[in-house]
C-alpha cells in the first residue's frame, strides 16, 4: 500500500521541534536568541499551545530567569502567585499529622517558587517564541520520523488524514506533510511516541536502567473565597494508599479562587485491583481535604504519565541530528518543581560549542557524522 500513496509535500527548516511544551518552546526561544536567522518550526498536536499541558504546577522561576531575564518587569506574565507556605501532611484513615518543614528534604522547599498554570506559561512562551519569528503549528501531530539513506534523521511527518477504519485511504484522504530539518528536537513529554521509536532504533537506553513511570491525575477547581489561600502549597502522603503503594497528593492554591489538586501514583503498585482514579477520588473525601471542595466547582481534569526513573534511567539524549528534551527525562526526580529544568534542555543549556553551527549560520551537510550534535557530554555533566 505504501507505494500507492502520493508523495508528501515537504517544507525545509533549520530546526524542527516536536512539542510546544516548556522544553520545546524554551529551546525555540533560546535558539532564536543565539541566531535570529534560524528558520524554526514547532509542531504541537494540541489544538492550541497549552491545550495538552496538564500540570497546575509549582515552578522554580530560575529557568525563566536564565531564558528571559527581565520577565518580572513585564506585564501579563503568568507567574502571578508566589508560594507563601509549604505544608506537608501525613494522612491516616481519619486524621492527619502536619509534618514540620525542617524534616523535609531541602528540595521540597518551595520558597521563591510560583504556583502557576503551566498551560498559561506555555501560551506565554509561545507568544515569546512567535515574536522572535518561530513558526508554531498547533493541531499537527508529528506521527513519523523521517530518515535519509544513511539512517540519519532528516525530519518528521505529520499524520495522513482521511484514513478509513480498515486502514485504507478514504475519499477525503490527505497525505501528511514532511517537515525537514537540519536538526530535530524531540520535546514530546513523557513516553512520546516518536521518542519511543527513536530510543528503540538507536538503542538510546543501552546501559541505562529501565525507565519507571507514575500516573498523575489532576483536577482544577474553583473554590469558595473562604477556602482560597493563594500561594499555599500542600503535599500529602499516606491514606488512602497502603504501605506497598507509592504516591501522594498535591494541592496548590492559585489566584482567582482556583485550586489545582492532583494525585500521583507510582505504577509499580502491587494490588491489581487498585484504581488510581478511585484512590484520587477517595483522597478528596479525607476530613483534612474535603472542606476545600465544599461548594466548589470542578473546571477541568486530566491525567498524564510522569517519568520517575531518575538520573540512571535517562537515555542518551543526542544522536545524528537529533536532541531529546531533558525536561522530562528525570533530571529532577526529587523535586516537585520540574518544569524549571527547561533551562537544562539541550538548546538552552548549550550556549557555546554544540549549537555553534546553528548560531554562526555554518551550513550543515547531510552526513550523519557532521550533524552529530556533541551535546551528550555536556548534558551528562549537568
Ligand atoms: C499531574 C502532574 C503534576 C505536575 N506538577 C508539576 C509541578 O508542580 N511543577 C513542575 O515543575 N512540574 C510538574 N509536572 C511535570 C511537568 O508537567 C513536566 O516536567 C513538563 O511539563 C515537561 O515539559 P515537556 O516540554 O518536556 O513536555 P510536556 O509538558 O508534556 O509537553 C509536550 C508537548 O508536546 C506535545 N506533543 C507530544 N507529542 C507530540 C507529537 N508527536 N507531535 C506534536 N506535538 C506533540 C504535547 O501535546 C505537549 O504540548 C507535573 C506533571 C504532572 C503530570
Rounded radius of gyration (Å): 22 Å
Please report the number of helical segments.
8
* Ligands bound to this protein structure: flavin-adenine dinucleotide
**How many strands, which pairing sense, and closed or not: the largest β-sheet?**
8 strands, mixed
Look at the structure and name the CATH superfamily of the largest domain.
FAD/NAD(P)-binding domain
How are the elements arranged and paired?
Elements: E1 10-18, H1 22-34, E2 40-44, E3 56-59, H2 62-67, E4 81-82, E5 85-91, E6 96-99, E7 114-117, H3 118-131, E8 135-138, E9 142-147, E10 153-158, E11 161-163, E12 169-174, E13 178-186, H4 193-202, E14 213-222, E15 232-238, E16 247-253, E17 258-266, H5 276-283, E18 297-307, E19 318-319, E20 322-324, H6 346-349, H7 356-360, H8 376-381
Parallel strand pairs: 1-2, 1-13, 2-8, 5-15, 13-20
Antiparallel strand pairs: 3-7, 4-7, 5-6, 9-10, 10-13, 11-12, 14-17, 14-18, 15-16, 16-17, 19-20
Helix pairs in contact: 1-3
This protein binds flavin-adenine dinucleotide.
Flavin-adenine dinucleotide binds at residues 18-24, 43-46, 52-55, 57-59, 118, 141-142, 187-189, 192-194, 216, 218, 262, 304, 306, 325, 327-328, 336-340.
Amino acid at each position: 500500500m505504501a507505494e500507492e500513496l502520493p508523495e508528501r509535500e515537504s517544507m525545509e527548516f533549520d530546526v524542527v521541534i516536536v512539542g510546544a511544551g516548556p522544553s520545546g518552546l524554551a529551546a525555540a526561544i533560546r535558539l532564536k536568541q543565539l541566531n535570529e536567522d534560524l528558520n524554526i518550526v514547532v509542531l504541537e498536536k494540541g489544538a492550541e499551545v497549552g491545550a495538552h499541558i496538564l500540570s497546575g504546577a509549582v515552578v522554580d522561576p530560575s529557568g525563566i530567569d536564565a531564558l528571559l531575564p527581565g520577565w518580572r518587569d513585564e506585564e501579563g506574565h503568568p507567574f502571578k502567585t508566589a508560594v507563601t507556605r509549604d505544608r506537608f501532611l501525613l494522612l491516616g484513615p481519619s486524621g492527619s499529622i502536619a509534618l514540620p518543614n525542617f524534616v523535609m528534604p531541602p528540595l521540597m522547599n518551595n520558597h521563591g517558587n510560583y504556583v502557576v498554570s503551566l498551560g498559561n506559561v506555555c501560551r506565554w512562551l509561545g507568544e515569546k517564541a512567535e515574536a522572535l519569528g518561530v513558526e508554531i503549528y498547533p493541531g499537527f501531530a508529528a506521527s513519523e520520523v523521517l530518515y535519509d539513506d544513511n539512517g540519519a534523521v532528516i525530519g518528521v511527518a505529520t499524520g495522513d488524514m482521511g484514513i478509513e477504519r480498515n486502514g485504507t485511504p478514504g475519499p477525503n484522504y490527505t497525505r501528511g506533510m514532511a517537515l525537514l530539518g537540519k536538526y530535530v528536537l524531540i520535546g514530546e513529554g513523557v513516553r512520546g511516541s516518536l521518542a519511543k521509536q527513536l530510543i528503540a532504533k538507536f538503542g538510546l537506553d543501552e546501559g541505562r536502567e529501565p525507565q519507571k513511570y507514575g500516573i498523575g491525575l489532576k483536577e482544577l477547581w474553583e473554590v469558595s473565597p473562604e477556602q482560597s489561600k493563594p500561594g499555599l502549597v500542600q503535599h500529602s502522603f499516606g491514606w488512602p494508599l497502603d504501605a506497598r503503594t507509592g504516591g501522594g497528593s498535591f494541592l496548590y492554591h492559585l489566584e482567582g479562587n482556583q485550586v489545582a489538586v492532583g494525585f500521583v501514583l507510582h505504577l509499580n503498585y502491587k494490588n491489581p485491583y487498585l484504581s488510581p482514579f478511585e484512590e484520587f477520588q477517595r483522597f478528596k473525601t479525607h476530613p483534612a481535604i474535603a472542606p476545600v471542595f465544599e461548594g466548589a466547582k470542578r473546571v477541568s481534569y486530566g491525567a498524564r504519565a510522569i517519568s520517575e526513573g531518575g538520573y540512571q534511567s535517562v537515555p542518551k539524549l543526542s544522536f545524528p541530528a537529533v536532541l531529546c528534551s531533558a525536561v522530562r527525562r528525570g533530571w529532577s526526580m526529587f523535586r516537585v518543581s520540574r518544569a524549571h529544568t527547561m533551562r537544562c534542555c539541550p538548546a538552552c543549556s548549550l550556549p557555546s560549542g554544540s549549537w555553534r553551527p546553528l548560531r554562526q549560520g555554518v551550513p550543515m551537510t547531510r552526513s550523519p557524522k557532521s550533524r552529530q550534535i556533541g551535546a551528550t557530554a555536556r548534558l551528562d555533566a549537568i
